[in-house]
Specification:
single chain, mainly beta, Immunoglobulin-like, five-stranded antiparallel β-sheet, 19 strands, 15% helix, disordered N terminus, disordered C terminus
């Protein structure tokens, strides 16, 4: 699977659309075909200590609109990355970082049941630049014309070569199409601990890093980092959001978009190396599976 709510700040598996064909114009009652549009998503983080360890508490809000695909557009959808569906039930999988707890999924204000998809299917994990993530599964029903998904979860923050590092899986491609061609992810990251040398990047599936500008506001002993990641259908996708930082007063806060210390260089090199090894391993595994099936 390609690395979001995917969303994801979010990833959807649509089992029924694999063989979707254009409905003939002569059909008396053609089955409507839909897509989902998500021009905005909002992700709020709280970074705090829990039992002596740094944790991230994540609240994602995803306003979605169901859109009918016209017959001429249905022919386009077969060879592209956006997904389509029929009916009023939508199966969904969502990647979660290792050690995730306190998971909650809501459609508007209705709590949805979920299950551990990777526990049921151990080979089904979601690739990210900092490791393979397990996934949860739930079903959205009914699919309203407009609705909002709200997903909450909490996870420990990894320490990589002296820098705390966390990633938000921004798999937005299923929601981008010629008729919904742009989506903006709004991030607010509230730190309840002292932070220095914070670096924000997007990281693509090939390990390419690009700095992301951010602003910092301070209030009553906390700092909130705000930033946006814009995805455009006509442009290469920026990838996932990668945040790295130090805790304490190790050095002065820096928002240059460039690495400000040797440790920060190490963590970026480590992430790129991990991504490269992961991609090579994934390709070798796929090649081996094809060989075993012959």
């Amino acid at each position: 699977m390609q690395a979001h709510l995917l969303f994801t700040v979010f990833v959807c598996i649509l089992l029924a659309v694999a063989g979707l064909q254009v409905v003939p114009s002569a059909a008396a009652n053609p089955i409507p075909v839909y897509s989902l549009e998500m021009p905005e998503e909002y992700i709020n983080y709280t970074i705090c200590r829990v039992n002596g360890r740094l944790w991230a508490k994540v609240d994602g809000t995803y306003p979605l609109t169901k859109s009918v695909i016209e017959c001429e557009d249905q022919a386009l959808s077969g060879d592209n990355t956006w997904f389509t569906f029929t009916g009023d039930t939508l199966p969904m999988v969502y990647p979660t970082p290792p050690g995730t707890t306190s998971i909650s999924v809501k459609m508007d204000e209705t709590e949805l049941g979920w299950s551990n998809y990777t526990q049921t299917f151990p080979d089904e994990t979601h690739y990210t630049a900092i490791g393979n993530w397990p996934m949860i599964f739930c079903t959205i029903h009914p699919i309203l014309d407009q609705f909002t998904l709200k997903i909450h979860y909490e996870h420990p923050i990894q320490l990589v070569n002296g820098s705390y590092t966390f990633l938000y899986d921004l798999n937005i491609s299923p929601y981008l199409s010629p008729w919904s061609n742009k989506s903006t992810a709004h991030f607010n990251i509230r730190f309840e601990t002292d932070v220095t040398d914070l670096q924000a990047h997007t990281i693509a599936t090939d390990g390419a890093l690009n700095p992301v500008e951010y602003t910092v506001t301070k209030d009553a002993g906390t700092e909130t980092v705000s930033l946006q990641v814009v995805s455009d259908y006509s442009q290469p996708l920026p990838g996932d959001l990668l945040i790295a930082f130090h805790e304490g007063n190790e050095s002065e806060q820096n928002n240059s978009g460039l690495l400000s210390s040797t440790e920060q260089r190490y963590v970026v090199v480590a992430v790129i190396s991990t991504a490269a090894v992961g991609i090579v391993g994934y390709l070798l595994l796929k090649h081996k599976k094809r060989g075993d099936n012959k």
